[in-house]
Automatic annotation (TrEMBL):
Domain of life, source organism: Bacteria
Co-factor requirement: FMN
Protein name: Flavin reductase like domain-containing protein
Annotated stretches, region: Disordered: 104-127
Organism: Saccharothrix espanaensis (strain ATCC 51144 / DSM 44229 / JCM 9112 / NBRC 15066 / NRRL 15764)
């Protein structure tokens, strides 16, 4: 799963996420408390979840061990992370505007959900 949030400078933050539980229009997300995504969501209260199919495995792999934050936080290089400015370009993904939230969505992901932290209302695009 890939999650989009908005960085403070207005650029999109695309991050991997492996822990999510969805039931109806609600989702419980497992995120590292100190992550850029968590900070962004705390500030904007919005995100877009992109659910890639097996056909996008290569794109997902190209995002492994990349981070959009510069400088890279001290502990991340020890795990092999490196800074990449526009991770979605590196992965060969196409960004398109969401319908009701500010974060973009990945055109190649045909299953996605946008929402807010107040209650997970379906505020974005869903197919």
């Amino acid at each position: 799963m890939r999650i989009f949030s908005d960085n403070e400078n207005g650029t999109p933050n695309l991050a991997p996420m492996s822990s999510a539980f969805c039931l109806g229009s609600r989702a419980l997300l497992g995120l590292e408390a100190s992550s850029q995504t968590t900070r962004n969501m705390s500030r904007t209260r919005q995100c877009v979840l992109n659910l890639p199919s097996v056909d996008l495995a290569g794109a997902v792999d190209r995002l492994a061990l990349t981070i959009g934050v510069d400088p890279v936080p001290e502990r991340k290089p020890l795990c092999g992370y490196r800074h990449v400015e526009a991770k979605f370009h590196r992965a060969g993904l196409t960004l398109v505007a969401s319908e009701t939230v500010s974060q973009p969505r990945v055109a190649e992901c045909h299953r996605r959900r946008g929402g807010d932290r107040r209650g997970g209302a379906p505020n974005g695009s869903r197919r």
